Amino acid sequence: MSRYxxxxxxxxxxxxxxxxxxxxxxxxxxxxxxxVSSFAELELHNAVNLRLFRKEFTVAxxxxxxxxxxxxxxxxxxxxxxxxxxxxxxxxxxxxxxxKDVGTRAGxxxxxAIALELKAEWFLTFDKRQQQLAKLEGLRVIS
Length: 143
Known about the structure:
Layout: E1 3-5, H1 7-12, H2 20-29, E2 34-37, H3 38-53, H4 59-74, E3 78-81, H5 87-102, H6 106-117, E4 122-124, H7 128-136, E5 140-141
Parallel strand pairs: 1-4, 2-3, 4-5
Helix pairs in contact: 3-4, 5-6, 6-7
């Protein structure tokens, strides 16, 4: 059973957010690794830098989070997948089919398209519109 994590899910693991406990508990009950696209990994590292910019993290806290992220990838909690060849084509199709009803942004659509192209069964996100889109496309979501 494969699971794909978007940035909202990943970020919740490294700072106290409303979904943190749910994310941790979900991962404890699931086989590993969780699929992460190179796009999501970029967004995760950028989220740390944004928190530093916004003064939500000190430099030391940001470095600790970066080390924790790296350690989790090294120990096999996550598996980074390159962007599938057809992910942008699939995202275009999803945009045409769903955005007018769901209101998803391009990055959100791209994450769902990647999950679909990777044949994931679960889509791990705390973004409500992404959850709605993923459900419409037959993926199971965390809630």
